[in-house]
Amino acid sequence: MLVTFTTDAHADITMFGEFALTFITMMGHSKTVPGAILAADVPMALARLRKAVDAEMTSHSAVNNEGDTDEEDTNEPSVSLSNRALPLISLLSAAADAECDVMWK
After folding, report:
1. Digit-coded pLDDT (tens) for 54-88
2. Is the bond leading into 77 cis (omega within 30 degrees of zero)?
């Protein structure tokens, strides 16, 4: 499944459903597709997403610092959750600045 985030202030962002649903939950919404955030609620959703991604990065780096590496993990590069969130954070920032609604389907 693919989920597309749209707003009038930014280009559309399409993500794999698994990650999109994770980010929607981090923003404080249910995993309902389609869905929307009203312009007045976008700054709070953005703040929640940034806080959750920062917390995830902190917990992930703590796990990596323990030295528990798996040989399979070193062979395949992985994309961190914070890097996957960057396009959505950009979209939400633009929507907050322009006071636009955000929708996903």
Report:
1. 988 887 665 555 555 555 556 677 888 889 999 99
2. no
Q: How far is CA 49 from CA 31, 66, 75, in A?
A: 14, 26, 30
| Phi and psi at residue 7, to the nearest 5° | -155, 160
pTM for this entry = 0.81
Which residue reads 């990650």 in tokens? 19
Residue whose C-alpha is closest to residue 90's, from 7, 1, 20: 7
Gap between the Cα atoms of 57 and 29, Å rounded: 21
- Calculate the CA dihedral of residues 63, 66, 72, 75 and round it to 10 degrees: 90
- Helix/strand/coil (H/E/C) assignment for every residue in 17-66: HHHHHHHHHHCCCCCCCCEEECHHHHHHHHHHHHHHHHHHHHHHHHHHHC
Q: Cβ distance 29 to 59 under 8 Å?
A: no
